[in-house]
Structures are given as structure tokens and as C-alpha cells.
Amino acid sequence: MRVLLAGYNVDSAVLDELKRHSPPREDITPETLSAAYARISRDPRPVDDLRAAARAEVERARRSNQSIIFKMGHHSVAEHAVFNFDVVGVSRLAIEEIERFRLVSFTEKSQRYITLGEDFVVPEEIKRARREALFVRTVKAQNALYHRLYARLKPHVFAKHAAAAADPRNHAVLDGWAKEDARYAVSLATEGQLGMTVNARNLELLIRRFAAKGLEEVRALNARLYELARAVAPSILLFTDPSPFDADTYPDLAEAAAVWPAPRRGRRAAAGVALAASTPDGDTRAIAALLHTVTRHSYKECLARAAKAGAAARRDLVRRAFARMEFYDFPLREFEHADLVYDLVLSASCFAQLKRHRMATLTWQRYDPALGVTVPPSFREAGLEKDFLAVVARTEEAHAALEKEAGPAADYVLTNAHRRRALLKVNVRELYHISRLREDVSAQWEIRRAAAEMSRLAAREMPLACLLLGGKDAFPKVYAKVFGRAPKMVPPALLK
Question: Which of 34, 162, 344, 487 is least crowded, fewest Cβ atoms below 10 Å from its Cβ?
């Protein structure tokens, strides 16, 4: 067996430097890799020879890509061409659209670790409606409040956690807690930045979907991504125009739904988590899947055996599936056969963290001021709630005025405290991932509460499959309760 490193990500500045100090060449493109790998199935030569041939004849490689990917329909070949993008100065509202895509990697600027400045996006829709002055005044008032909140919350947090604050090593963590509460005041127009890594197949889908979006900021991003990628890999980005399916399906659904009777709505709704649906007898499904993997029985037979088994046998099997886990391990994939669906009302701040779990299925509505806002407990503790709600009221007045003339772009002015409805479908295995990260003591308080409620509701439905749910900080205690002994490893402490 030979294993060769075929390539890796290289900073574009390094590539430019290489180009300046070498003769003109066309083979600095990810297209050659996709063309070479496309030939593996029908060319007996070693794959490193195929790569060499593709580099030597770039135009032929491009024709091969177009033939194999687009004419023959082998789209997976395009996944071997990978791009890295810096996306700078993009709004938080647009980032939510960007991060819809499951098979794309993102790393986003944090509002916990970075003190926010005054940078924000003024959407073109607002400018065209000639309401820029109202928009800017409102956002500047929110930003001014953010800085006042942070200045007051930082000493409050340090005083509340005086024992931890005595050690300077904890100061960055405590400072982050103050910042992430203060950020509830800032708008969805606040500028962020992210690094994005995506293969050509998913980039093409992303560009096509972005072209159909209502927000002009997203459509502008689409045009720039296409321009940059096409310059270096023209043969693997062809289907980039929005299809009628991309552009018109959701408007069609909205038109149909408009004639359905609407439920009565109150002015305010509490944020929260409700279990809307779950796999019937999820424990039995998970146990049957475990049996199926280690026996020669059909799944139907395994279901029958799992249903008939006694409580002790069922518990013993599940315990064995968990016994060797540590806090960094995920359950076996057999636990993916049990699903849960949650109906959520949560703030933009909380949603920003939940959307990172792209293996879950997450769909959502627009932000809705009628759902109210989430007020961090620290605001009440520090006597800041009145100031915050005054800015919220001003924000909602501006939103109502902007929506009349700018439609959905009015949402840019809403704060991180404003809420939306979301629908989350997870299997039990993915719920463990969410629970470990978001129930942990290091998690932001709102997502921590939501994740804990998800775990509580899941454990009520599937107590065996959910035996070890909990944040990674709680793992040793949870493990010891189940197995009567401590695990081998203890997660690192957040505070010193």
C-alpha cells in the first residue's frame, strides 16, 4: 500500500508568491485534482500518474470535468476541488443564511471574545427606501447601549464570581460572560466575519441558492463567490443560476398557506423548548439497531426481540453500548435510529449557537417582534433592564416603520434579543453532541437552558438511550451514577 499526500490548503498569498517566482503556468487550480480522481474508475494508471497527466494538460482536464461532472452526472467528482473564502464585513443576518449549508465548514467571529465596535451593514433595501437615517439612528442607539451595558456588567460579573475573579487566569472567561450578555442589545446588522471552506459541488449549490435569496446582501455575496471561484476553476462551476425551484417554491408555499385559518396570536410568548414529536418507543428502536449490528437477524426480527426483552436485558445492552465512553466520545451510530423534534422559541443570540449544529435538521421563521425579547438575568441583577427595554421599544418602532417600505430587510434593525420560532429535528446521537457542548458550564446561559430542557424531555421519552446526556462538565457525575464508578478521564475545568 502507498499513501500519498495529494495536496492541501495553501494560503492565496503563498500561491501568488509562487506565481511571481515561477514561469507562467495554468496548473495552479483545484480542477486538476477533480479531473484526476474522476479517472480512477476507468484508468488503470496509479492515481499519482493521473494527477501528473491532469497537471500537464489542464485544458484537457477541464474538458474532462465538464464531460464527467455535467454530461455524465458524476457530481461527486467536484467534491475533490476545495475552496477557502474569507468573508469580511458581512452582517449577522446574512451569516444566518450563509450557515444554512450542512456540508460547508465555517468559523465565525465571536461576540463573546471580541469587544464589538461600531461597524454595521446598512442594507441596500433600506437605502433605496430612503430610510437610512432612521436605521442608522436606531443601530447607533443600540451600539451605545451595548458599550454602557458592557461597562456596567463587567464589574457585576467579577463581583458575582469573586472567588474565580481572584485568579487572573479566569479574567478572560468572566469578561466574556459580560460581553455575551451585553451583545443582546446589538442589531442583526452588526458586521461579522467568517472563514468558509467548501468543495466545488456544494459551492455551486450555495451560489445557486444565494442567487434566489431576497436579501440583496446575500445576492451580492453570491456574485462575488462565483467571480472568485470561476477565475481559478471555470470547469466545475456551471449550474449557478437560480432555478425556479430555488426561487419560487417558498413563495408558492406561502401563497397556499395564506388561505389556511390562522391561530390566534398573543403579543408576547415565552422563550422555550417543546417536544413536538419523537420516534415511537425510541429505546426499542435503538436497542433493535444495536442487536442488528452484532447479529445476523433482520431489523424486523430485532425489533420484535427488543420489544419482548425484559427490562434488565434491555438496560444491560444499552449500558454495554455506553460503558467505555469518555466525555469526548459520541454514542454509537445505532442511536441515530431514534429521532426527536423540538418546537423552539429562542433569541437571535441563542439561535446563532444552535445553527452551528448542522448535522441536525433546523428550519426557521423570520424574526418576529410579537414574540418579545429575551432579557439576560444579569440585566435585572445590575439594574439595567429598564434601559434595555427602552431601546427595544425604540427598535420595534423603527422595525414597524421600515417593514412597510423595505420588507424583510427591516429585520436587520432587530437585536440579538429578539426571538423567532425554529423547528429542530435531531437523532439521539446528535442530541448527545448538542448536550455535551451546550449544557456544559462553559456554554452561554440561554443555549445552556435550552439544551438542558431538550435533554430532560428526551430522557422522559427514551430513558435508556439518554442515560448519559449532559454537559461535558457533568459527565463524570452522570457516568458514576449509571455505572457506580468514575470514568477514566475528567474534562478540563473552565475556571482555575
Answer: 162
Residues 347-355 have a mean pLDDT of: 94
Per-residue pLDDT at 77 exceeds 80? no
**Could you report the per-residue pLDDT of 375-421, keeping only the tens digit for each?**
999 999 999 999 999 999 999 999 999 999 999 999 999 999 999 99
Architecture (CATH level 2) of domain 270-374+417-486:
2-Layer Sandwich (3.30)
C-alpha–C-alpha distance, residues 481 and 360, integer Å? 28
- The CATH 3.30.1360.170 domain(s) of the chain lie at 85-255+398-408, 270-374+417-486
Going by pLDDT thresholds of 50, 70 and 90, the confidence category of residue 72 is low
Distance from C-alpha of 92 to C-alpha of 84, rounded to nearest angstrom: 20
pLDDT in tens, 218-261: 999 988 998 888 888 888 777 778 888 888 988 898 899 988 88
In angstroms, the CA 95 to CA 8 distance is: 26
Over residues 290-306, mean pLDDT: 97
Fold of 85-255+398-408: Gyrase A; domain 2 (3.30.1360)
Average pLDDT, integer, range 190-213: 88
Please give the angle made by the CA atoms of 138, 143 and 145, to the nearest 5 degrees.
Answer: 95
Are 84 and 114 within 8 A, CB to CB?
no
Helix, coil or strand: residue 454: helix
Three-state DSSP class for residue 196: strand
For residue 10, the one-letter residue type is: V
Question: Which residues, other chains included, contact 99 with Cβ-Cβ below 8 Å and sequence gap of 6+?
Answer: 106, 108, 355, 356, 358
Evaluate whether 376 touches 179 at the Cβ level (below 8 Å). no
Q: Which of 467, 462, 362 is nearest to 99 (CA)?
A: 362
